[in-house]
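Quick one, tokens below:
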């Protein structure tokens, strides 16, 4: 596939920043177009010479058809982890529907959509069910879509390991809801690489599980972060009922809560590779372990 113009929705986010930095270095002749409502939120991208920030509402099919004009592909990264049913429906289902319409209007056939592991119509959480419904939209779109399903994504500036590392530094013990929940943490660089290779290689599978080399419980992840930061702490596993009380209290704090009731529901099912669809090895990627973060957290031990 020729690559002179690729549109990236959600490009200002965690995965988007990693993807665009890698794409700009790898494809110097490709314009990487990032629609955003607020250019001020994308300052980190403005230093990349081939990234074009465009003021546009991604929910508007007409506006996005204009943005997509002349593009060879769309990479769709927009997602939310918290919200009510209406918010999940708008972002995970209605937005893909609008973008699929915009792609058809603009003549864009190739789409890379980042979904999530464990999505299913009968999943226990609104998040996972809405992500499954979004996949169905893309599957029925008539476009050439590859769906990447990552487990929890880690990196030096993620909002997952850094939150827990901060808690370990401050608390003598860590009360933890969902301590036994299973994940297969995947490095953001490997997810970014999977997107690039999906665009570069013809015949990419329709669905790819993006999972790291280790299946870890949430308590295992906390223990690993404790060793990396030099702040190992006892973990007090909380029963789900107490976890929901914790989520209720966190919702009273300013800003977006780090844990919601729906997150707890999601953790009832393992976020691990299914074994039923290809994994990162199908793209020639050997995923990095969580230990990759050791150098990032090492200064805390000094």
């Amino acid at each position: 596939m020729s690559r002179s113009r690729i549109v990236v929705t959600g490009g200002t986010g965690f995965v988007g920043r990693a993807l665009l930095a890698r794409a700009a270095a790898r494809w110097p002749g490709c314009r990487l177009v990032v629609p955003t409502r607020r250019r001020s939120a994308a300052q980190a991208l403005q230093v990349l010479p081939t990234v074009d920030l465009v003021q546009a509402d991604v929910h508007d099919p007409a506006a996005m058809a204009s943005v997509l004009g002349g593009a060879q592909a769309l990479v769709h990264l927009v997602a939310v982890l918290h919200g009510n049913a209406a918010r999940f429906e708008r972002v995970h289902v209605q937005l893909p529907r609008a973008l699929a319409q915009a792609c058809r209007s603009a003549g864009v056939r190739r789409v890379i959509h980042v979904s999530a592991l464990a999505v299913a119509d009968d999943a226990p959480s609104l998040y996972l069910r809405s992500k499954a419904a979004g996949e169905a939209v893309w599957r029925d779109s008539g476009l050439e879509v590859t769906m990447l399903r990552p487990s929890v994504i880690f990196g030096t500036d993620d909002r997952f390991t850094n939150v827990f590392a901060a808690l370990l530094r401050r608390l003598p013990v860590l009360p933890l809801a969902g301590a036994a929940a299973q994940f297969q943490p995947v490095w953001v660089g490997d997810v970014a690489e999977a997107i690039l290779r999906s665009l570069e290689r013809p015949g990419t599978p329709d669905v790819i599980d993006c999972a790291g080399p280790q299946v870890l419980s949430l308590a295992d992840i906390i223990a690993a972060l404790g060793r990396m930061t030099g702040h190992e702490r006892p973990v007090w596993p909380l029963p789900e009922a107490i976890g929901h009380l914790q989520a209720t209290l966190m919702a009273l704090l300013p800003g977006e809560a780090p844990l919601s009731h729906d997150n707890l529901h999601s953790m009832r099912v393992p976020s691990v590779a299914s074994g039923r669809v290809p994994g990162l090895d199908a793209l020639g990627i050997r995923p990095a372990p969580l230990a990759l973060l050791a150098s990032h957290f090492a200064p805390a031990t000094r």
